[in-house]
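Help! Submission page says 'invalid entity' but I think these are all valid:
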Amino acid sequence: MEKDRKEGIRGMANPGRYGIERVAYWLMRITGLGLLFYFIGHIYETSSLLDGKAAWNSMLELTQTTEGHIFLTLVIGMCVFHTGNGIRLMIAQSGFGFGKPRRPDYPYTPSSLNMKNKLCIYVSIGLAALAMMYGLGVMYDV
Amino acid sequence: MTKGGALPKGFESPSDLGSQEKYEEVKPSSKTMTLRISKFNPDKDHAPTFLEFPVSYEKWTTVLDAILEAKNYHDHSIGVRYSCRQAMCGSCGMNINGKPRLACFTKISELDSDVVTVEPMNNFPLIRDLVVGFERMFSTHKRIKPYIIREDSEISSGTKEFLQTPEDVEKYIQFSSCIKCGLCNSACPTMAADSTFIGPQGLAQAYRYIADNRDQGKDERLKIIDERHGIWGCHFAGSCSQVCPKGVDPAMGIQLLRGYLLGYRK
Amino acid sequence: MSSIMRESHIMKIHYLTALVAVGFVIIHIMVRVTQGFSNSLEFESVIANYKSIPYAVVLEAMLILISVHGFNGLRIILLEIKQGRVYENAVTYGCLAAMIILIAYGSRTIIMASMGMV
Ligand code: HEM
Ligand code: HEM
Ligand code: SF4
Ligand code: FES
């Protein structure tokens, strides 16, 4: 332990301890980075078109493996969660959906951690799971 | 603390209670837990060690009570800061079983654990044992100008006092409950890696003054917080509001504050 | 970047790019769904997609919006992980450069494919 008790990246990247909102924060970061990674790969993937049909097809084959399918399924899930939770955040972070400030009274339930936000987080996770199942269905021809 | 036993002469309970009120007898329900206190002096020690004390507690015993018992009867050198013992002064914030809480406001019984581990708060510089330094938080707090800004003053002629309706007060009173305990900054994920971040404490106070209709310092303050390590470091993880012991709900204040910068509020 | 722009302007861009991108990504995915996933990925149909100018514009818009959004997101995270003048400048200009390079690289595909230079 150093003199400054900064938790550092491990504190930032630890989704536990503080409820579903902290989990959503963590998922938002991970999915954002994951999507950026996919996006760069995707731009590279489509650029193979310029080298003709053979190059394009061999590029597509990379995702025709089990690992490729898992990766694409994750991308679908990340995309749906990031979008759903992103819309929630854009609304909440603009100051909407909290009601009015009021005199705090014990036991002090914070209105920023309200049901609306929690529900949106759970719905985003749920939709992501559904989309992943749909994606798996398409990829494995069910 | 005398638990039962014979009372000294003259202090026996009167046999005739007569008109005296009868109080329900409080049964001592003492349980015992192990209190683990982090000991570390950065000037002398290389690594923190934990001291362990068996402490008996009642339903109402707070973590601060337990620490003080250990300090008074076992090890005087334990460094702990406290003052009011009633969640008013903001001195006794520390990590209790992994989460930042006020030691004086946390009852051992509510922790539901046989072992209570107390450590200094995260994301603050350590002074010694359970005591962390607040200089950085206080100077950041000052930076957002935590006072009413306006040209005239209540004592200038013509104005006796600045009147506010109860509705006006309602707009900021929640945020003025802040006791500067720093728990919110300690829980914040951005603060964990970025000490230059203003942090939930300071941002909530920026909102407290901007929302006060006596104040005219809005533009000044918005400029201060609209910086790289300013308000946009908040990603609404809500952990600050999760731990705030006073119902300030800093996360709400911050999002309302962002409304001004994004043009949704005037 | 920061000297010419307030952080709130950058955040407005971050939100706006995301919001507009939602619509375009939906179009992009719907193209797959309506054509049938494996058919839509056939070389010939992909080239045909690019040759439709309105759709090529959608692709280009998506490319720009998401690059801006994604690399600004990366910048936000990196600036919160570590601080310091040199590091912060490196991150800011590094992300800006990466963003421009990716947009240029993707635009090359879109322009060449839509003009039939394959
Ligand atoms: C199209 C729908 C999208 C929406 C509605 C959306 C929305 C958002 C929002 C609101 C944030 C800010 C979160 C915060 O304040 O913490 C954000 C962050 C981010 N987004 Fe997106 N986004 C979308 C797509 C994407 C895509 C496709 C990528 C990848 C290229 C991406 C990468 C990122 C990154 C890296 C961050 C930073 C993460 C963070 O600060 O927590 N986003 N997004
Ligand atoms: C279901 C998954 C996806 C599939 C199968 C897919 C497939 C394709 C294909 C075949 C193209 C070539 C143009 C066309 O025929 O439309 C393309 C281009 C593109 N896609 Fe996707 N895509 C997917 C998801 C995404 C997502 C989630 C994004 C945004 C984050 C995205 C962004 C782009 C962009 C910007 C281009 C243009 C790239 C360029 O030509 O430089 N795609 N995609
Ligand atoms: S906002 Fe709450 S947690 Fe933060 S310093 Fe004030 S009282 Fe403490
Ligand atoms: S001793 Fe004052 S807040 Fe705990």
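Support: the input was valid. A stray whitespace character was the problem, and the output above is from the cleaned input. The radius of gyration of chain C is 17 Å.
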